Every structure is written in C-alpha cells, then in structure tokens.
Amino acid sequence: MTISRFGRERATADDTPEAPHAEGTGRRLRYVLPAAALLALLLAAAFLVYRVGPSEQKASVAGTPQLASAETFEERFGLAVTLVGVTASGGIVDVRFKVLDADKARSTLQDEKNMPVLNVEGSTVTPMMRDTAIQDQDLEVGKAYYILYSNPRGVVKPGTPVSVAVGDLVLEPIIAQ
Q1: DSSP state of 62
Q2: Burial of residue 85, with CB atoms counted within 10 A of its CB: 0-12 exposed, 13-18 middle, 19 or more buried
Q3: How far apart are alpha carbons 76 and 40 in whole angstroms?
Q4: What's the confidence (pLDDT) of residue 9?
Q5: This prediction's pTM
Q6: pLDDT digits (tens, 9 = 90+) for 83-139
Q7: Is the dihedral of CA 126, 127, 130, 131 positive or negative?
Q8: In this model, does residue 165 exceed pLDDT 80?
Q9: How do strand 169-171 and strand 66-68 relate by DSSP bridges?
Q10: For residue 76, is pLDDT > 80?
Q11: In sequence order, what DSSP letters do the residues of 119-175 get, joined into one string?
C-alpha cells in the first residue's frame, strides 16, 4: 500500500489478491474462438466435398435434357449401346457400343464435349479413359467399342438403371449387368 501525494492510500500490485485464472482465461479465449471458427469452416468444406466428389458431379447440362429412345439415339449419333456392365469388383462400369454410322459416331466421339456420360440416380459419372482413347481409333461400321467409367462409391450395381447421355440427349435407361 502506498500513499498518494494527496494523502490517500492507494493499492499496489502487491496488495491485490491475484486471480490466477483471469489472465489465462482471456489468453485462452483469444485462441479458442478463432480455432472454433476455423474448425466450423473446415467441417463445412468437408461436407461440401463429400456431397460433390471429384468423380461424381451433379448433372448440369445447358438446356433441359431430352429422353430419347434407342432408335432416336442411334439415328442421331450412329451408335447403339449394347452393354452397361459392372466389372473389376464393382469399381468400373464398362459401356459397350456398336458403330452404326461411322461418320456420325466419329463426329460425336471426336468432340470431347460430346463424350458420353452416365446418368445414375441424379448424378453423372464421367469416363475414366483419356479423352483421346476413342478419338485415336478409326471407327468402323459394325465393330464394337467400349468406354470405361469409374464407379464412385459403387453407385452402379447389377440391376441399376443407367442412362447414357450425349450432350442434351439422354438414352432411355438400360439395366446394368
């Protein structure tokens, strides 16, 4: 205790009882609140990544997709889808098609925007092959070709209805084998 120049007693740091947790609590709050905010942001980002994975994206086609019969699909693209099969212990979807018109098929498959995608339960699955795998081949009428697709989280199983889409035209569902 000290006496001020006006004659009053004044408390000093030695006279006040220490609050051992007062300073530590303020310091901890300074770190806890930003850490909690960062954790909340990380959880939100993880949730978004889980909902839209890298190999499975929500369908986003300009315009409304049109459902087409096999005949319409074949006439427009020169391709007949002959098989949608699950292989490699469920990790790959094998889509086989037969070329009916080499010129139409070539113009479809040589434009990477037209590479067929699979529509499964409101999601699209894109080819796992490099874009030029089909483009490098000389397509022949009557010959069968294939495109391999990854099967994220086993979304396609034998018996699952799968639609093959090229641009805004979606082939009526085919049951996967």
Answers
A1: S
A2: middle
A3: 49
A4: 65
A5: 0.59
A6: 999 999 889 999 999 999 999 988 888 777 778 888 887 677 776 665 556 666 788
A7: negative
A8: yes
A9: parallel
A10: yes
A11: EETTEEE-BSS-THHHHTS---TT-EEEEEEE-GGG---TT-EEEEEETTEEEPPEE
Q: Residue 141 corresponds to which tokens in the numbers above?
A: 């009428």
Place of tokens 């609590």: 25
Strands 66-68 and 123-125: what pairing? unpaired
Q: Which two tokens stand for residue 18?
A: 């220490």
List the one residue out of 48, 72, 172 whose CA is nearest residue 119: 172
Sign of CA dihedral 49, 112, 59, 172: negative
How far is residue 117's CA from residue 128's CA, in Å, rounded to a whole number? Answer: 10
pLDDT tens profile 12-67: 655 555 555 556 666 666 777 777 777 776 666 665 555 544 433 334 445 567 88
CA-to-CA distance for 85 and 70, rounded, in angstroms? 17
Strand partners, 99: 79
Tokens of 164: 């093959």
3-29 CB burial, b ≥16 within 10 A, e <16: eeeeeeeeeeeeeeeeeeeeeeeeeee
> How far is residue 163's CA from residue 155's CA, in Å, rounded to a whole number?
13
